[in-house]
Design a protein that fits this description.
Pfam families: zf-C2H2 (PF00096)
Subcellular location: Nucleus
GO cellular component, one term: nucleus
Strand content: 5-15%
Order of helices and strands: HEEHEEHEEHEEHEEHEEHEEHEEH
Oligomer: single chain
InterPro entries: GLI_C2H2-zinc-finger, Znf_C2H2_sf, Znf_C2H2_type
Distance between the termini: 86 Å
Shape: elongated
Helix content: 40-55%
Organism: Stegodyphus mimosarum (African social velvet spider)
Largest sheet: 2 strands, antiparallel
Amino acid sequence: MPTHAEEKPFECEVCRKSCKKKSYLRKHMLIHTGVKPHVCEVCKKSFSMKCNLNKHMLVHTGEKPHVCKLCKKSFSQNSHLKHHMLNHTGEKSHVCEVCKKLFSHKSDLKKHILTHTGEKPHVCEVCKKSFSIKSNLNKHMLIHTGEKSYVCEICKKSFSQNGNLKDHMLIHTGEKSHMCEICKKTFSHKSGLNKHMLIHTGEKRHICEVCKKSFSHKSGLDKHMLIHTGE
């Protein structure tokens, strides 16, 4: 039976990774040298390997040859399709060692770990607010740019984030998918259900700093404060 060394006789002197062929080793070495000779003619982004440039070009062509057999959603890269398939299989093989929560994708686990470490490496250059996830920083930047690229096709109101547009659409559809398990009242948004649940739990976490009276909702506290301010 061939040994690991016999199967991959070409070893990288930097990180000791072994390769089957010398040509593979040469390609691998580009990671360490930082050389990126393959340049996209459209956006000038450069890549160390030709195969990565080929994958990148699909961004510009819009081609999505990899199709999910279950839901017919298509992807530009096979790795993205494999990533997507975990949504159908429900497989969650990545475990958080702190709280034992399971994740389908390693990338989601890495994001989750930041909730335990408190690390926020992504900093807004405008207001210096920091975020644990790059995507949250990108969303935040829309506050500064004022960009609102998500437009409601019914009333033409625009939003900076797709999630906000989806929430807004519930006004038009009248959909109320969030139901209180106690009294069966339904709500369009999860936040509305959460506020409603305070009626049943009796929780009053909004406290007046003047007289210490507590309220279930922030709006109730705001109204109460008018007594003290005299407005």
